[in-house]
Write a structure and sequence with these properties.
The structure holds two protein chains of two kinds. Chain A is an all-alpha fold. Chain A contains eleven helices and two strands; from the N terminus they run H-H-H-H-E-E-H-H-H-H-H-H-H. Chain A has helices at 2-20, 27-45, 49-70, 81-102, 128-150, 152-162, 164-169, 174-199, 207-221, 226-246, 251-265; strands at residues 118-121, 124-127. A two-stranded antiparallel sheet of chain A has the order 1-2. The chains are: A mainly alpha, B mainly alpha.
C-alpha cells in the first residue's frame, strides 16, 4: 500500500521527465505543499480530506500551470543543468515559505473513522483506507496511461517527447502544452499528497525525501514507462517495509539499497528500453 | 603594423602580470599571518569561507567542466570528516597528520562510488548521488562505532592549547582553499582539462578525437571528491563534532550550488566571486531565518533565468579578462 503511494508520487515525476526532459527537484516539496493546502481547506470549510480534494486539485493545477508558464518554460530545453538548479532553488524557497506560513510543527490530515475501518478477508485484516488509496492509485495510473495512449493530448505528449522541434513545426504549442502537463502533474500530486497526509504526519522539511522515493520509483521502473513507475513504486515501498521489519531505523536505507542494486544490474530500469 | 600591435598587446600584459603577482603575494602573506592579529571568531569564519570555497570549487569543476551535476555533494564532506574523526580518535594520532589519510579515504570512496553512479547520466546522475548521500547518512546514524545519532567529538585536539588549535585549523583551511584553486588551475591547463572541455562541448566529437570520456570523468570525480573530503575534514576540525544529520546535510550541497550558480558555473573565478557574495549575504541577512533562505533561493532562480553565466559573466561581458589563463581560444593569425 505504501508502494502504491510512492508510485503515485513517481507518476508526476515520470511525466515531466518523459515529456519535458526535466527533473523537478521541488517535486517532493510540492507534495508537502499539497498536503498543507489540504489541511488549510479542511480547517476553513470543515470538510474531510477527500472532499477537500475538490478544491485542492484545481488549486494545484493552477499553481502548476502558472509555475511552468512563468518560470520553468524559460529553462526547458536548455540541457539538464538549468532546470535542475532552478527547481533546486524553488525547493529551498518552498520549504522555507511553508515553514514561515505553517511553522515547523508536524501536521497530519484527520480522516476520522474512515481511517480506522477495515474488514477481514480470509483471515487477513485489510484496512479500508490503504485499500481505497491503492485503488485510486491504480485508477489514476490506468487513466494516465489511457490518456497518453489514446487522447489528442497524449499524442501531443508523445510527439513532443520524441522531437520537440518537429512537434512545434506541426503546430503543437509547446509552451502552453508544457504548462498543461505541469498542471496535470500537480493535480496528481494533490491526490497523492492527501493520501500521504492521511497516512503519515508531515512537516515543511519532509519534501526532499518524498522526491527521492519518487525518483527511485521512476528510475527503477524505466523511463517513459507509466506502468514501470507503478511497479517501481511498489518495489521501493515493499523494500522499505521489509527493511523496517529487520531494523526499525533502516527502512528507507533498504529502499535505497534495492534501488542501487537494481541500477547496477539493469541501468535502464526494469522495464526500460535497452538503448541509452 | 603587426609587430606594433603585438608589442602593444604584450607589454602591458607583462607589467600587469607582475602587479597581479605582487598583490597576490601580499594578500596571501596577510592571510597567512592572520592568526597573530585577528580574533578567534574571525579565524573561525575564515575557516568556513575557505573550506566552503573549496567545496564549491570542486562542485563547479564537476558540473561546469565535467557535466557531472551532483546534488549529493555532502557525501564527500561527510566521508572526509568521518574518516578524519574515526582515524584520529581510534589511533589517538594528531589529526593534522591524519588529514592526508582522510583525503585518501575520500578518494577511495569516490573511486568505489563511481561504480554505481557512472551508470547514470545527466539529471539521473544528479539525484542518484543524493540517494547515495542519504544512504551514508542513514548508515552512520545507525552505526554505534561511529557514534550513531550523537556523532563523535575530535578527542585528539583537546591536548592542544586554544591558540595553536585555532591557528592550525586556520592554516589547514587556507592551504585547502588555495591548494584547491592551484590544483584546479593546474588540472584545467593540462591534458585532463583539455579532455574535459572537449567532452563538455561535444561528447561525440571528443570521443571521435580519441578522448577517453569515462576516464577523464572518473579522474575529475576522484580529484573533486578528494578536495571536498579534505575541506569537509578541515571544516569539522573547526566545529570539533561530527553528527550524521549535520555532516551529511543537504545544506553543504546547497551552499556549493548557490555559490557556483551566483558566481558563474564553468569558470574558476565564479566560485571565488560566489563565495564572497554568499558570505556577505549570509553575514548580513542570516538573522532573518526562513526569509533569508527564501531570498537566497529566489536569487538563485533569478540568476538561472536572467544571467545563467552568473556574476562572473557580467564581468567578462564588459571586460575580456582571464586571470587564470584556463580559457582556450582558437589560435588567431
Amino acid at each position: 500500500m505504501l508502494g502504491a503511494l510512492y508510485a503515485l508520487f513517481g507518476l508526476g515525476l515520470s511525466l515531466s521527465l518523459g515529456v519535458m526532459k526535466m527533473i523537478n527537484i521541488a517535486h517532493g516539496d510540492l507534495i508537502v505543499l499539497g498536503a498543507y493546502l489540504c489541511s488549510t481547506v479542511m480547517q476553513l470549510l470543515g470538510t474531510g480530506p477527500f472532499i477537500s480534494l475538490l478544491a485542492v486539485v484545481p488549486m494545484m493545477f493552477v499553481i502548476g500551470y502558472v509555475l511552468q508558464r512563468v518560470l520553468l518554460n524559460r529553462v526547458v530545453g536548455r540541457g539538464a543543468l538549468s532546470p535542475l538548479l532552478l527547481t533546486f532553488g524553488l525547493s529551498i524557497v518552498l520549504q522555507n515559505l511553508l515553514q514561515e506560513v505553517y511553522t515547523a510543527d508536524t501536521r497530519s490530515l484527520q480522516a476520522g473513522e474512515f481511517a480506522l475501518q477495515g474488514f477481514d478477508l480470509g483471515g487477513v485484516s485489510i484496512g479500508l483506507l490503504p485499500l481505497v488509496s491503492t485503488l485510486i492509485s491504480v485508477a489514476i495510473f490506468a487513466g494516465t496511461s489511457w490518456l497518453i495512449g489514446h487522447s489528442h493530448l497524449g499524442r501531443q505528449a508523445r510527439a513532443v517527447a520524441d522531437d520537440p522541434g518537429t512537434a512545434r513545426l506541426v503546430g503543437v504549442n509547446d509552451r502552453n502544452f508544457f504548462a498543461l502537463v505541469t498542471g496535470f502533474v500537480l493535480a496528481v500530486i494533490a491526490l497523492a499528497s492527501v493520501m500521504y497526509g492521511v497516512r503519515t504526519p508531515f512537516s515543511p522539511t519532509a519534501g526532499p525525501e518524498r522526491l527521492l522515493y519518487s525518483f527511485e520509483a521512476v528510475v527503477l521502473g524505466g523511463l517513459g514507462n507509466v506502468w514501470g513507475t507503478f511497479v517501481g513504486g511498489l518495489i521501493i515501498g515493499v523494500a522499505q517495509l521489509l527493511g523496517a521489519k529487520v531494523s526499525s531505523g533502516l527502512g528507507p536505507f533498504f529502499g535505497h539499497l534495492v534501488f542501487l542494486i537494481a541500477l547496477l544490474a539493469r541501468p535502464q530500469g526494469l522495464f526500460g528500453k535497452g538503448s541509452r | 603594423m603587426n609587430s606594433i600591435a603585438l608589442m602593444n598587446g604584450t607589454r602591458p600584459r607583462k607589467a600587469g602580470r607582475a602587479v597581479v603577482g605582487v598583490v597576490l603575494l601580499v594578500v596571501l602573506g596577510a592571510l597567512a599571518l592572520a592568526p597573530w592579529f585577528t580574533s578567534f571568531a574571525t579565524q573561525r569564519l575564515l575557516v568556513e569561507v575557505f573550506t566552503v570555497f573549496a567545496m564549491a570549487l570542486a562542485w563547479n569543476l564537476l558540473a561546469g567542466y565535467g557535466g557531472l551535476v551532483v546534488v549529493g555533494h555532502q557525501m564527500f564532506v561527510g566521508v572526509g570528516a568521518y574518516a578524519l574523526f574515526a582515524l584520529s580518535n581510534r589511533l589517538g594520532i594528531n589529526p593534522w597528520i591524519m588529514l592526508p589519510l582522510a583525503t585518501a579515504a575520500t578518494a577511495l570512496f569516490a573511486l568505489l562510488s563511481a561504480l554505481p553512479m557512472f551508470r547514470l547520466s545527466g539529471a539521473h546522475f544528479a539525484v542518484g548521488t543524493w540517494v547515495l548521500a542519504e544512504m551514508l547518512r542513514i548508515l552512520t546514524l545507525n552505526n554505534e562505532w561511529l557514534g550513531a545519532g550523537g556523532g563523535m567529538p575530535l578527542e585528539a585536539l583537546g591536548s592542544f592549547d586554544r591558540w595553536t588549535r585555532n591557528a592550525g585549523v586556520y592554516w589547514s583551511a587556507l592551504i585547502t582553499g588555495v591548494g584547491a584553486l592551484f590544483i584546479a588551475r593546474l588540472m584545467l591547463r593540462g591534458r585532463l582539462g583539455l579532455a574535459l572541455m572537449s567532452v563538455r562541448d561535444s561528447e561525440a566529437a571528443a570521443a571521435a578525437s580519441g578522448v577517453s570520456i569515462q576516464r577523464a570523468k572518473l579522474a575529475l570525480w576522484v580529484i573533486a571528491g578528494s578536495i571536498t573530503g579534505l575541506a569537509g575534514a578541515v571544516a569539522y576540525m573547526n566545529t570539533l563534532q561530527v553528527t550524521p544529520d549535520a555532516t551529511f546535510s543537504l545544506n553543504w550541497s546547497a551552499a556549493a550550488i548557490f555559490i557556483a550558480v551566483l558566481g558563474g558555473i564553468g569558470t574558476l573565478e565564479g566560485p571565488i566571486l560566489g563565495t564572497i557574495l554568499y558570505f556577505l549575504l549570509r553575514e548580513s541577512f542570516a538573522s532573518y531565518g526562513s526569509w533569508y533562505f527564501i531570498g537566497l533561493g529566489s536569487l538563485a532562480i533569478a540568476t538561472m533565468v536572467f544571467a545563467p553565466g552568473g556574476a562572473w559573466s557580467l564581468v567578462t561581458r564588459r571586460w575580456a579578462i582571464d586571470p587564470f589563463g584556463v580559457r582556450r581560444d582558437m589560435p588567431r593569425r
